[in-house]
Design goal:
The protein has eight helices and three strands, in the order E-H-E-E-H-H-H-H-H-H-H. It is mainly alpha-helical. The chain has two domains: about 1-45, no CATH class; about 60-185, no CATH class. The chain has a three-stranded antiparallel sheet, with helices on one face. Strand 2 and strand 3 form a beta hairpin. The radius of gyration is 17 Å and the shape is globular.
């Protein structure tokens, strides 16, 4: 049975092409009779749940977050391209946090830097959390630091995050430009 990715149809939701690329794909599997069946836990295209995702997460505006991250003195000195790529990864991270509230979804380093910058604009962060989650999403920066058991829990949670990411988005959890050697390790937070 072949597994293929099928993008959600963001065009029907008024999303631009660049935003459409950020919308998660769903995995489908072809059955012997030639029909496709969904094999991930994603919502069906065009459903209220998918439209809600499109409006709430894809529609988040990170213009000022990216501007700050591009500043060499105040931020990280990232390029526009890096900011855009990490923004897309961050939105996928938020999607996993939204879909799996009982699981420990762990950011990679680049996503964590973006998350930290988002949090620093406390008013916007609180408003965005309310829109996406219905509550304030807290950031716990000590995960994996409280001994060997905690470190193993972090590693297990990161492996689960990687699995869910691959299942939902059809690619490895990492930084798109390939600079993942040091940037895509788990960060000690959740």
């Amino acid at each position: 049975m072949a597994i293929a990715e099928q993008p959600y149809q963001a065009e029907n939701l008024g999303a631009s092409r660049s935003l459409a690329a950020q919308i998660p794909t769903r995995k489908v599997q072809s059955t012997p009779d030639g029909k496709d069946e969904q094999v991930s836990g994603m919502c069906e295209p065009g459903t209220a749940a998918q439209e809600k995702f499109s409006r709430e997460i894809v529609g988040l505006d990170f213009t000022m977050v990216k501007r700050k991250l591009q500043d060499a003195e105040e931020g990280q000195g990232w390029t526009t391209r890096t900011c855009d790529e990490v923004e897309a990864e961050y939105k996928r991270f938020l999607f996993l946090k939204q879909q799996y509230p009982a699981r420990e979804i762990v950011p990679n380093r680049m996503v964590d830097v973006f998350w930290h910058q988002h949090i620093l604009d406390t008013e916007k962060y609180a408003r965005d959390c309310s829109k996406v989650f219905g509550f304030f999403l807290h950031h716990y920066p000590y995960f994996g630091m409280l001994g060997e058991d905690d470190r193993r829990n972090l590693d297990t949670a990161f492996a689960e995050t990687e699995r869910l990411y691959r299942e939902h988005f059809g690619e490895d959890y990492g930084f798109a430009t390939g600079r993942c050697r040091t940037q895509c390790k788990p960060v000690k937070c959740k």
